[in-house]
Specification:
Blueprint: H1 2-37, E1 40-43, E2 49-53, E3 59-64, H2 74-100, H3 110-115, H4 120-132
Antiparallel strand pairs: 1-2, 2-3
Length: 155
C-alpha cells in the first residue's frame, strides 16, 4: 500500500512538473516572439546619432542626425558611439529581463536566452532535471551516465 501512495504522489508531482514545464515553454515562446519583433531605439546624449536594436539587443540601425558628427574629434565620436551602443543594449536586455520576470530559475542563463546564445534544449533539460529527481533513477534518465561512470559501485 505504501508503494501505491508513493506512486500517487509521484503522479501529482509529475502533473505539477508538467504544468510548470508548459508555463515555461509559453514564456520561452513569448520571449522568442519579442526577440523577433521588438525594437529599442536610443539617442546619444548630444543627439548626434541614434541607434536601433533588435529584440536580442543587436544593433540593427545607426542613424546620424544632422552634421554634428562631422566636427567631432575621432576619439569623441568613437566615445559617443560606444556609449550609445552600451545604453541601447542595456535597454533592450532590460525589456527581456522584465518579460522573463523576477522569478528567475536557478541554473538557467536568462540573459543568454534573451540574446539567443543559449540552446533551447539545454533550457528544457535544466527545467526537467529537478522535476525528474526521485521519479526516474539517474541511470535510467535519458542522456545521463550510469552510476558506475559517476563513481558509484561497479556492476
Amino acid at each position: 500500500m505504501t508503494e501505491m501512495n508513493r506512486g500517487g504522489g509521484a503522479f501529482q508531482d509529475l502533473e505539477a512538473a508538467m504544468a510548470a514545464l508548459e508555463q515555461e515553454q509559453r514564456k520561452l515562446a513569448e520571449i522568442g516572439e519579442v526577440r523577433e519583433n521588438e525594437t529599442t531605439t536610443v539617442q546619444a546624449k548630444d543627439r548626434s546619432l541614434e541607434m536601433t536594436f533588435d529584440g536580442s539587443g543587436e544593433l540593427s540601425e545607426l542613424k546620424f542626425n544632422g552634421t554634428k558628427y562631422r566636427s567631432m574629434a575621432p576619439a569623441q565620436l568613437a566615445h559617443v558611439i560606444v556609449e550609445t551602443l552600451q545604453q541601447g543594449r542595456a535597454q533592450a536586455m532590460a525589456k527581456m529581463t522584465d518579460l522573463m520576470g523576477s522569478d528567475a530559475l536557478p541554473g538557467i542563463d536568462l540573459a543568454g536566452i534573451a540574446a539567443g546564445k543559449v540552446d533551447p534544449s539545454s533550457v528544457i533539460d535544466a527545467l526537467l532535471a529537478p522535476m525528474l529527481d526521485g521519479i526516474v533513477d539517474d541511470d535510467e534518465r535519458p542522456g545521463k551516465n550510469s552510476r558506475t561512470e559517476k563513481g558509484g559501485q561497479d556492476g
